[in-house]
Design brief:
Distance between the termini: 32 Å
Largest sheet: none
Order of helices and strands: HHHHH
Number of helices: 5
Helix content: over 70%
Structural class: mainly alpha
Amino acid sequence: MDALQSIVTDLNTLIPIVNHWFHLLSAVIWIGGLAFLVMAVTPGLKKAVAKEQIKPITDIFYQHYRKVAGILLVVLLFTGGVNLHYVNQVMTSQTQLGIQHNAKYLTIFFIKLGLVLCLLTLFLYTVIFKSDEDDDAEIEYEVIPYQRAALWMGFFIILCASALKHLHQ
């Protein structure tokens, strides 16, 4: 019986750790990939290749990134929900009150969630509604439409995540 209880306790410790690791890993890959495109690929191509070659090359990068980003968004949303469950358990065990009674945590959580929803909207806009004709009308072509705005939102999401991590300890 003690061995079974030990295994259950170990799983209750292991699951939130692995889930949080997947969440962080997905965020790092997603925002790191976006940062690489914004800070290295786009400026590098502008200097290295002719203007008419930039769009076909960046479209290839974006097609690969879009697939990865879509999968990562699903992973982030799922693991974020699981993280919220475990944080609520920790807060309840420490204070006998759940997340719903911590105004600072909820405020930052909803700011983070709002930023995530903005990023999700930008991503879905580029996947579903953005057409090739729109790209021809742009004066300055971006690998990912609204890439700088998306990158800054990603930076602020990480800032919110950092604040949240320290509000429940």
